[in-house]
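Re: [ENG-882] Designed sequences occasionally contain unexpected residues at chain ends

Forwarding the minimal case from QA. Structure tokens:
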């Protein structure tokens, strides 16, 4: 799966050099905008795979990328996130996969903690959708530069300028076109490449199963062959450039502007431009701030943090994989690393690179790369690892849950397994666990951002922990951070309750916003803080 990449040297400027040719990014979008299709097309362009469909593809998805969980197979959705590495133009690209279903958006937000850039796909016919807006907001909060790609231009859709207006008005970002569609949505002829001032004409090729043919024409040739399609594209793009000023790397990196590209992922149109933009413009793996705001430079000894923990990927082996983003130094398989949170050391014997079912033993990794540590069961989401120079990276934020269920073991004789399973799933970040003295240990409350998270819990509890459980819905839909005193204040109030999250925070739960407002009115001194935005608590960022 992974292409062989040549490494110069593992010493000082060798590390800086390797880091500077790393681009670590994720494709993000509202579901159905074409994320999986684009992932596949990017891999195809990098010639990792022979034909599209081998990596992801909706029809094939049941058989392909992440069929490790029966539930995914049944529903044909992709829940797991992994990383795909390939080289393109002497650059090493790390593409971090994110789940397609919005119920698992918390997972997507965690992946964003590990990337240096995001490619935001927008469906040309739909414009900015709810999930698109949440993702823009998370990127803004975390200062992740965004390349915006208007996808599905082969189908009828919105007008180019209307889409640009929508971006400016709703996200506040300055759209900075790198390419501009020639031909209206539904009649995608190619793009004007603004930098080279040429017309790149796309030709359909085997329904996107192989690389689309690209032909480069001069503006004069384009005018002759495309007539109004060409002049309209040039006029529109020039208008946007004139009113917004030209593209600058600074605006892209500081998050005030977003480069704009047009594509049809399904036809492989415009995909090469996305890869070129990543290589030429996206930030390379660089220094990362630790919990005290101090930079950990890439040349420092090895360090990294866990951005995802996943178990049950391979039922036969009952494995538990912690995905680490390398922040500094060289990771070498077998090296003894320190787990910052416990102070314990361990040898990284089983290091792998994973994408879907494909696994490959990984011997070394550089800043920006992702390593899957197998059976490192002490590692939890957000934990830091290092050698020699201690470092702790900021924690990965927890999100504001909106769905709550009381969990109980179906079989009282299996309470031990039940307890262990729930704890483990909490550590993996699959669910948040809330408790109170009143409810007792037998009946913890599970809190989720999307209800499908409960199905994962149910499945894992039965399959992996042999602890069948039942869940009863709770009427709450809103959580706020509060303190110990709130327990007494809210006791006896209908539609409200205080529970303690496994990290020790007190959460006040309310049936709805009205129940909360009533409490706010009657107890103005009570602490009721929002848990970040509904897109996530951004403490530490
Ligand atoms: P997601 O991961 O963002 O959820 O989207 P995915 O790639 O699965 O794409 C969703 C649908 O959109 C797929 O259709 C896919 O083929 C189609 N699609 C993706 N990119 C393009 C594009 O550039 N142009 C066009 N015309 N279609 C595109 P599907 O699953 O086959 O059918 P359906 O979901 O429309 O029923």
């Amino acid at each position: 799966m992974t292409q062989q990449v040549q490494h110069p040297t593992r010493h000082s400027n060798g590390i800086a050099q390797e880091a500077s040719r790393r681009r670590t990014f994720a494709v993000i979008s509202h579901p159905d905008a074409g994320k999986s299709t684009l992932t596949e097309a990017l891999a195809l362009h990098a010639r990792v795979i022979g034909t599209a469909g081998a990596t992801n593809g909706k029809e094939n998805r049941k058989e392909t990328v992440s069929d490790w969980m029966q539930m995914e197979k049944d529903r044909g959705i992709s829940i797991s996130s992994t990383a795909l590495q390939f080289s393109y133009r002497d650059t090493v690209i790390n593409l971090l996969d994110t789940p397609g279903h919005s119920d698992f958006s918390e997972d997507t937000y965690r992946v964003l903690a590990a990337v240096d850039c995001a490619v935001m796909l927008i469906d040309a016919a739909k414009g900015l959708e709810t999930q698109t807006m949440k993702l823009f907001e998370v990127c803004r909060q975390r200062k992740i530069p965004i390349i915006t790609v208007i996808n599905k231009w082969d189908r009828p859709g919105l007008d180019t300028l209307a889409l640009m207006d929508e971006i400016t008005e709703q996200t506040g970002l300055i759209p900075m076109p790198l390419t501009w569609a020639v031909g209206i949505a539904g009649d995608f002829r190619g793009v004007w490449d603004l930098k080279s001032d040429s017309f790149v004409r796309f030709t359909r090729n085997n329904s996107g199963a192989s690389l689309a043919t690209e032909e480069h024409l001069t503006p004069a040739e384009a005018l002759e062959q495309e007539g109004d399609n060409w002049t309209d594209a040039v006029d529109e793009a020039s208008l946007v450039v004139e009113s917004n000023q030209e593209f600058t790397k600074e605006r892209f990196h500081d998050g005030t502007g977003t480069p704009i590209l047009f594509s049809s992922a399904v036809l492989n149109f415009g995909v090469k431009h996305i890869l070129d933009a990543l290589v030429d413009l996206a930030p390379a793996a660089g220094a990362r701030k630790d919990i005290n705001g101090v930079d950990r430079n890439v040349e420092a000894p090895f360090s990294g943090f866990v951005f995802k923990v996943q178990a049950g990927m391979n039922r036969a082996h009952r494995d538990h994989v912690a995905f680490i983003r390398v922040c500094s130094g060289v990771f070498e398989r077998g090296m003894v690393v320190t787990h910052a949170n416990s102070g314990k050391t361990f040898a990284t014997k089983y290091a792998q690179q994973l994408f879907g079912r494909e696994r490959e033993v990984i011997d070394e990794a550089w800043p920006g790369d992702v390593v899957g540590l197998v059976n490192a069961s002490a590692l939890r989401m957000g934990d830091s690892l290092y050698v020699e120079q201690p470092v702790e990276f900021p924690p990965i934020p927890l999100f504001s849950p909106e769905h709550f269920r009381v969990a109980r073991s179906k079989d009282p004789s299996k309470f031990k397994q039940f307890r262990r399973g729930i704890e483990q799933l909490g550590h993996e970040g699959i669910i948040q666990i809330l408790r109170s003295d009143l409810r007792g240990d037998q009946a913890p409350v599970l809190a989720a951002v999307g209800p499908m998270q409960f199905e994962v819990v149910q499945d894992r509890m039965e399959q992996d922990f042999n602890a069948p459980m039942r869940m009863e819905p709770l009427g709450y839909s809103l959580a706020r951070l509060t303190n110990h005193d709130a327990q007494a204040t809210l006791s006896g109030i209908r539609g409200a309750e205080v529970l303690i999250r496994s990290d020790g925070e007190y959460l006040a739960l309310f049936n709805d916003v009205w129940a909360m407002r009533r409490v706010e009115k009657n107890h103005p001194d009570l602490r009721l803080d929002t848990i970040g935005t509904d897109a996530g608590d951004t403490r530490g960022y």
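QA comment: On inspection the terminal residues look reasonable. The longest strand covers residues 303-311. Proposing we downgrade this to a documentation issue.
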